[in-house]
Automatic annotation (TrEMBL):
<dbReference type="InterPro" id="IPR023346">
    <property type="entry name" value="Lysozyme-like_dom_sf"/>
</dbReference>
<comment type="similarity">
    <text>Belongs to the N-acetylmuramoyl-L-alanine amidase 2 family.</text>
</comment>
<feature type="domain" description="N-acetylmuramoyl-L-alanine amidase">
    <location>
        <begin position="222"/>
        <end position="349"/>
    </location>
</feature>
<dbReference type="InterPro" id="IPR002502">
    <property type="entry name" value="Amidase_domain"/>
</dbReference>
<keyword id="KW-0732">Signal</keyword>
<dbReference type="InterPro" id="IPR051206">
    <property type="entry name" value="NAMLAA_amidase_2"/>
</dbReference>
<dbReference type="InterPro" id="IPR002477">
    <property type="entry name" value="Peptidoglycan-bd-like"/>
</dbReference>
<dbReference type="Pfam" id="PF01471">
    <property type="entry name" value="PG_binding_1"/>
</dbReference>
<dbReference type="InterPro" id="IPR036366">
    <property type="entry name" value="PGBDSf"/>
</dbReference>
<keyword id="KW-0961">Cell wall biogenesis/degradation</keyword>
<keyword id="KW-0378">Hydrolase</keyword>
<protein>
    <recommendedName>
        <fullName>N-acetylmuramoyl-L-alanine amidase</fullName>
        <ecNumber>3.5.1.28</ecNumber>
    </recommendedName>
</protein>
<dbReference type="InterPro" id="IPR036365">
    <property type="entry name" value="PGBD-like_sf"/>
</dbReference>
<dbReference type="Pfam" id="PF01510">
    <property type="entry name" value="Amidase_2"/>
</dbReference>
<dbReference type="InterPro" id="IPR036505">
    <property type="entry name" value="Amidase/PGRP_sf"/>
</dbReference>
<feature type="signal peptide">
    <location>
        <begin position="1"/>
        <end position="33"/>
    </location>
</feature>
């Protein structure tokens, strides 16, 4: 992280702020001390959702996007946000004070008590919905809440859309998390088509001038210096102590006096550049002039943020920067914020896997466990890596398939049936071509055309392999072979065979056609 220190409860018992969470799909272990309150986090979400008329899954997805449902014992984030719902008190965002006014609860309780904090988050979300004029029918449609979620971010324009897109990604992909004490919080995957309104034109589309795969969102000019006073010789690894969109917004805030060159998102490894490589970001005190800073979404005490996708994306960026500027790829020149001279920060912390990261920077890789040349039918009694892939996908999307052990047992069959029912497929518990296609394509639905690249293209390539019954190479690059596969799929499903993967093509794939 950069060098800035980071009436409606009606007698309901509160979950203590020591309640913490880690994503099962990452670590499989709960973190922190068990709660001593009598109210579970699921109850807190359900009660807050009912009291303020906010969809329960939306509320949970906002909280997960902000903190992975970890209240961090009431400690503030980088931009002075608190609790599971990240209620903020800083010069440009006063959602903490707003929550206090709406609920009648004290700011102290809203900061430290998880149940009260979730109630406050629901109240703030509802207030944004009311300000936008959402009526009862619209509030029952989760897609109509997109502008309210964007406002909850405290950001504006493209950055607020980036925030809302992340929340709707979690709704599309599903999520599951285990809180201390073993309670599990689920959001099952579903097709989403958010009503973005004017924000539909606010997507971040400008590419980085220095690193082609990255987006470009400029930091406020008060938060960096033009040029450099020293030779560039190191890369500094940071952890944001906040969310991806929140960090980008904070670096655009002139009062923050902090920035970094790049920010990396946890869920999919998306990279945004905010300061040009030739300029000096304010991120590491005495090392500012001689280094490039890379912020990683998350919190140092919660390893669930450090996904394999983020490690790989960040390592690819670091490799590129080292090669471009002649920086040695070793631990003397790729360092943590805590290792920069004169710094008092601890990030990236003990949960950052330096050994793995440096192996990736050095060029080693590995199979993803989801990509196969053909997807064969899996059913009760099946075993092997494709069963593991089914279990992994189901668990990631909030359907409890049990351990990803490669054995198709009763828990996996029940999860498959639940997924099939949700997608309108025959709930026979067997994973054939249609269920494979729907499982592999589940998630966000960005428009993809020739020249696109990244994880969404890989997801498309896997689902086309299942749908067409022939191998479509999974390389993350939308080239001629992928274009042909898309057109073949579109023509055989009665779609416009234009080679562009838009809402209609994604909808067909996600329904298993």
């Amino acid at each position: 992280m950069p060098r800035r220190p980071a009436g409606h409860t009606r007698g309901r018992a509160a979950v203590l702020a020591s309640l913490t969470v880690t994503a099962l799909v990452t670590t499989g272990q709960p973190a922190g001390a068990a709660p001593t309150g009598t109210e579970s986090m699921n109850q807190a979400f359900e009660q807050a959702a009912e009291e303020y008329g906010v969809p329960r899954d939306l509320l949970a997805a906002v909280g997960y996007g902000e903190t992975h449902l970890n209240g961090h014992a009431g400690r503030p984030s980088q931009d002075n946000g608190y609790g599971v719902m990240h209620l903020v008190s800083n010069p440009v965002n006063h959602s903490l004070e707003k929550a206090a006014a709406l609920t009648g609860e004290s700011t102290a309780d809203l900061r430290k008590d998880t149940g009260t904090n979730i109630l406050g988050g629901a109240a703030v979300l509802r207030s944004h919905a009311d300000a936008l004029g959402l009526d009862t029918a619209e509030r029952s449609d989760i897609n109509a809440w997109y502008p309210a979620v964007a406002r909850y971010s405290g950001a504006e324009g493209a950055v607020s859309a980036l925030y809302a897109d992340t929340v709707y990604t979690f709704l599309a992909q599903g999520l599951r998390a285990t809180v201390a004490g073993g309670e599990r919080v689920f959001v099952t995957s579903r097709p989403v088509s958010p009503d973005k309104g004017p924000l539909a034109k606010a997507d971040v589309t400008v590419q980085s001038p220095d690193y082609p795969p990255a987006l470009w969102v400029a930091a406020n000019s008060a938060n960096y210096a033009t040029g450099r006073a020293a030779t560039l010789d190191k890369v500094v690894i940071h952890v944001t102590q906040g969310s991806y969109a929140g960090t980008i917004s904070w670096f655009q805030n002139a009062t923050s006096k902090v920035s970094s060159h790049y920010v990396v998102r946890s869920s999919d490894g998306q990279v945004t550049q905010m300061v040009r490589d030739k300029d000096t970001a304010y991120h590491a005190k005495s090392a500012n002039a001689s280094s490039l800073g890379i912020e990683h979404e998350g919190f140092v005490d919660d390893p669930s943020w450090f996904t394999d996708t983020m490690y790989r994306s960040s390592a690819a960026l670091t490799t590129y920067l080292c090669d471009r500027y002649g920086i040695p790829k070793d631990r003397s020149h790729v360092i943590g914020h805590s290792e920069a001279p004169g710094n008092d920060h601890t990030d990236p912390g003990a949960n950052w896997n330096w050994t793995y990261y440096m192996q990736l920077v050095g060029g080693s890789g590995g199979a993803d466990g989801l990509s196969f040349g053909a997807y064969t039918t899996q059913s009760s009694g099946s075993t092997g890596p494709q069963v593991t892939a089914v279990q992994t996908l189901l668990n990631q999307q909030g359907y409890e398939a049990g351990a990803a052990d490669g054995v198709f047992g009763s828990a996996t069959r029940s999860a498959v049936q639940a997924f099939q029912t949700a997608r309108g497929l025959s709930a026979d518990g067997t994973v054939g071509p249609k269920t494979w296609t729907a499982l592999l394509s589940a998630g966000t639905t960005p428009t993809l055309v020739t020249g696109a690249s990244g994880d969404a293209v890989k997801r498309l390539q896997r689902s086309l392999t299942a749908a067409l019954g022939r191998t479509v190479a999974v390389d993350g690059a939308f080239g001629a072979n992928t274009d042909k596969a898309v057109r073949d799929y579109q023509s055989t499903r009665g779609l416009s065979a234009d080679g562009s993967v838009g809402p209609a093509t994604w909808a067909a794939l996600q329904s298993g056609r």
